[in-house]
Amino acid sequence: MKLNKICSAILLSTLPLTPALAAGLDRSGQSIAAFLQPGNYAEAGISILDPKVQSNQLKVNDMAEDYYFPSAAIKVQATEHISIGLLYDQPFGAESLYPSNNPVFGANGEATQVEVETHNLSALIGYQPTENWNFYVGPVYQTVQGTVSLRGLAYGGASKLGSYDINLKEDEAYGWLAGFAYQIPEIALKTAITYRSEIKHELDTTETFGFGAIQRPNALTEVVTPQSVNIDFQTGVAANTLAFANIRWAHWDQFAVTPKFLNAASGNNLIDYSDDQWSATVGVGRKFNSHWSGSASVGYDSGAGNPVTTLGPTEGYWSVGLGGQYSPAENYFIQAGVKYFWLGDAHAQTGGNIVGEFTDNYALGYGLKIGYRF
After folding, report:
1. Which residues, in sequence order, are bridge partners of residue 167?
2. Fold of 5-373
3. pLDDT tops 90 at residue 372
């Protein structure tokens, strides 16, 4: 069961790289695995998600848009005891578009749609007092922006919120992360616990009613992206074979986006969630020879409550994933992976009223990553 550092690093890189379709607006899973790689290391990747979210009851064939998001990281072992790193990802987001010819979610040839985009840049400094321990901390820079349009009878039609648009202009804010890792390289054992703080944004907001007839600019909308904890674990279980697990908690309970004029007109939030998210992934990775390795994983996500907003009507998931890696040399590799998600059924609501049920939902995720040791 003894694994050298190179083998351990190769197998570590087979951990799931495909996107984490998760509760609330959670996308990337906010991994810091790249920072825990041995020596100097850099990587770049892209993940693509192709979901299908439907409601036979409401005659909605698919309201979830395909999307992709990149990631990148660099880690430098500056001295024997000090490491520094920079991680980029897009941790939260949403992209949905209902059919415009469905009167429940469309009107005047326009459709209900949402687009939320975030960018994260995490800077880390780590202190390794011994070969086994790594303590790390650092600031996080984050931007958030979004646009939402509500159309159709689900929102009361044109006389109420069925003709509402909101533009949340990009805002930047700062948070922090901290954690520690423990490893025994000889048996490829590594565990890490990472905490990320919530980040509070105040976004300049323009709200429009009546298909553009009434515009209310110059307001601020508060958006607080959630605090979270990630627990990562791996260990050698046989020659050239690893078992791994990840557990994630994100504080979506009581999350709400409450634009000023929408709330005044309806007493409701634009988006809200009622439960915290718990997710877990477990799997195995195996090195077949000096060039090829692979992984298989199973995942679960609890969701963030049910009923849920019509802008993301699923509750959690189960998933299975496969990954493969080709290493032409010891210092670099190319990795690809795929995941299938069984998305949980959910009741969609607006203003506390259930509109309908979305069932038999699923998604396919794909990922590609290149890693280099220098």
Report:
1. 147, 206
2. Porin (2.40.160)
3. yes
